[in-house]
Design brief:
about 70% helix; single chain; mainly alpha; 9 helices
Length: about 190
């Protein structure tokens, strides 16, 4: 009986490792915009069997939702860890992370939207979660008079999304995102 009880936590740990391996493999697979990734390919890349894959994610939608939510979780966590930077710099660093987040999720989000019901919470509510996470950063930067206060975080997000939708490499997009970030800063000496 004791061996059954001690093996249960081991099985749970193995299941958690398998889930992480599946998500890691899927994240890497979906990062390639030219790839046509099947569930079998994800299982192969993760080094797990199909039964393990489907035990964790009954379908492709569930896997995509888990990937998306994990990425939003990381984005939200990053907002809570400003690394001792000045408020304006912390906010700008987080906005750069938001910008970097968007292009890598195009395939995932497009497929989720294509095959998703409107009431599925995986996409619905994620923008609100990210905005809620970023609000304290914006408020701190505005209170420190480092970021202008006539724009809402929703407006700033919409600018980032618009820039991220432009086709081009980082050399093409970087000056645009930098110009947007520069435009958020208050001119020196204005309070």
């Amino acid at each position: 009986m004791a061996s059954d009880q001690t093996s249960f936590p081991v099985r749970r740990a193995a299941a958690a490792r398998n889930r992480d391996r599946i998500l890691t493999a899927a994240r890497a697979a979906f990062a390639d915009p030219a790839a046509d990734i099947s569930m079998a390919e994800i299982a192969r890349r993760a080094g797990v069997g199909m039964a393990t894959l489907y035990r964790n994610f009954p379908g492709r939608q569930e896997l995509l939702e888990a990937l998306y939510v994990d990425e939003v979780d990381a984005l939200c966590a990053a907002a809570g860890a400003p690394d001792g930077q000045a408020p304006g710099a912390a906010f700008a660093a987080w906005l750069r992370r938001v910008f970097a987040f968007i292009p890598g999720k195009r395939l995932i989000v497009a497929e989720l939207l294509e095959h998703s019901d409107d009431d599925r919470p995986a996409i619905q509510g994620q923008r609100a979660r990210a905005l809620a996470a970023g609000r304290p950063l914006l408020a701190a930067a505005q209170q420190a008079h480092e970021i202008r206060d006539d724009l809402t975080l929703e407006q700033i997000f919409d600018m980032i999304v618009a820039i991220a939708k432009i086709h081009g490499d980082s050399d093409y997009l970087e000056p645009m995102i930098q110009t947007m970030l520069d435009g958020l800063r208050l001119p020196t000496g204005s309070t």
